[in-house]
Amino acid sequence: MNIILIEGSEMREGKITLSDHRAAHIIKILKCAEGDSVKVGILHGKIGTAQIVGLQKKFPFKVELIGRVESAPPPKEPVDFVLALPRPIMLRRILSQIAALGVENLHIVNANRVEKSFWNTSLIEKEVFTEHLIHGLEQAVDTVMPNIVFHTRFKPFMEDYLPTVSARYTHMLLAHPGSTGGLGTLLGRNRERVLVAIGPEGGWVDYEVGLFRNQGFSDFNIGCRILKVDTAVVNIHGRIMALFENVA
Amino acid sequence: MNIILIEGSEMREGKITLSDHRAAHIIKILKCAEGDSVKVGILHGKIGTAQIVGLQKKFPFKVELIGRVESAPPPKEPVDFVLALPRPIMLRRILSQIAALGVENLHIVNANRVEKSFWNTSLIEKEVFTEHLIHGLEQAVDTVMPNIVFHTRFKPFMEDYLPTVSARYTHMLLAHPGSTGGLGTLLGRNRERVLVAIGPEGGWVDYEVGLFRNQGFSDFNIGCRILKVDTAVVNIHGRIMALFENVA
Q1: A234 touching B, CB under 8 A?
Q2: What is the rounded distance in angstroms from the CA atom of residue A17 to the CA atom of residue B86?
Q3: Taking CB atoms and an 8 Å cutoff, what residues of chain A touch B235?
Q4: pTM for the full model?
Q5: A141:B237 CB<8 A
Q6: For B65-102, what is each residue's pLDDT tens digit?
Q7: What are the φ and ψ backbone dihedral angles of B117, each rounded to 5 degrees?
Q8: Which of B8, B88, B163, B170 falls between 20 and 30 A from B189, CA-CA?
Q9: Please, which residues have CB within 8 angstroms of residue B59's CB and are 6 or more apart in sequence?
Q10: What is the mean pLDDT of residues A7-19?
Q11: CB atoms < 10 A from the CB of A157, how many?
Q12: Which pLDDT belongs to residue B185?
């Protein structure tokens, strides 16, 4: 945790009292003492600093803080993703990573090569996946949760849902091994909104690729190496951000 | 596994007989039948295709193949890393990921903020870490193992070892939150060899940053978000590759 995230209702006239895993973290991991300061942020709100004014170091842990939140959280980045539902262990990791990277919107869709059993995961429930998003925000010092939307049917997602959001994007890109273009030739010279689709293990089937193209997606590749989906998400995010930085 | 890796000695006049986890993978995960082809590669050697000519589908699994290896593996990428030793669970993941990304050299060093207990891991033994590198090669369809070197003492690594390899690199870069430069302004317009150093959780201490600068490293940042080291490695690798691609 590089920031202690709290609900707005937990701060009253600058005072915060913690008695859960966050108190344990401040005491056992950060090894803070009275008088130390920690970074705090209000979920969906501002970021600031709070000083520890009271501390119960033995179980049950308790930490009392006084602070102010004045700074805006970092802005979200302009790269959103569409992912075929990955296996749960990988989805957990992706949720934390995209929250840390500053992704604003993540769409998780079914696909022909998604194993049906993957949909049995509790991770598609908001109370469960939120925990992993919070880990990412705590890592990256952010307070604003990404929007995660699960789409259990591919065709309605492509034909009914996508057209309602596609106008937001200057570029819609399909990571497709074997295509010839790289990102550098597809992206413009400005920091524009991009939606990137990444397939399941084994890739999209031809029918799915066809629907992406019908909706205006352009193929790109990142070389001949086949990456796992979590590696691909983080790597492609970095590639796009570097191109935008480079032309700023 | 997107390629079945074998030792050179396992192929005789084009014939390969597998009876270990690779046979189980071909039968249970890839669900291959007699007559199907799979991609094969000789460790440190060439890549080709082999046809399944015999199959024992029940335990103990056995697969007989006949094939040829004729193609060179993909070239390694020009980005090497120096990492402060991360916690073992993270190191495992990083080893697979850097093998998949085509990293050629990885140096893992001690640092002030590395927990001493991390050095007790069996992952610093070649027989143990090799397994994770092979997972990465199997994922990315490569046959050539990255070089992994562990350095248990920071100062000798910086002052004695680094000068013996630094001439290989056009750029030596230190990921340092709070520095002002981005990668786009530091890297040249060509695909040049780059060495990137990434610190432990909590960062390098000032003394360590000083030694990096003495050895010719330049600071860069990738924005204000603090990433976990595995996310940072994959993201920074992507950023550098995108800049090189963009100017090709």
Answers
A1: yes
A2: 33
A3: 101, 234-235, 237-238
A4: 0.96
A5: no
A6: 999 999 999 999 999 999 999 999 999 999 999 999 99
A7: -60, -20
A8: B163
A9: none
A10: 96
A11: 20
A12: 87
Q: B146 to chain A, minimum CA–CA distance in Å?
A: 15
CA-CA distance, A57 to A179, in Å (whole number)? 58
Q: Measured between alpha carbons, how far is B27 from B21 in angstroms, rounded to an integer?
A: 10
In this prediction, residue A246 carries a pLDDT of 60
Task: Report the helix count and the strand count for chain A, using DSSP H and E.
Answer: 8, 12
Looking at residue A188, its pLDDT comes to 74
Determine contact: B94 vs chain A, CB below 8 A: no
For A44: left if phi > 0, alpha if psi spans -120 to 50, otherwise beta; the answer is: left
Would you call A240 an interface residue with chain B, using a CB distance cutoff of 8 Å?
yes
The Cα diameter of chain A in Å comes to 61
Give the mean pLDDT of chain B: 95
Tokens of A107: 């769409």
Starting at the earlier edge strand, list the strands of the sheet with A47-56.
A4-6, A37-42, A47-56, A62-71, A15-18, A11-12
Q: In this predicted structure, what is the pLDDT of residue A248?
A: 46
Q: Which residues, in sequence order, are CB contacts of A83 under 8 Å at separation 6+?
A: A94, A106, A107, A108, A109, A197, A198, A229, A233
Kindly determine whether residue A141 and residue B240, on different chains, have CB atoms separated by under 8 Å: no
**What's the confidence (pLDDT) of residue A193?**
97
Measure the CA–CA gap between B197 and B107, rounded to whole angstroms. Answer: 9
Q: How many interface pairs between A and B have CB atoms less than 8 angstroms apart?
A: 116
Q: Under a CB-based contact definition with an 8 Å cutoff, are residues B206 and B214 in contact?
A: no
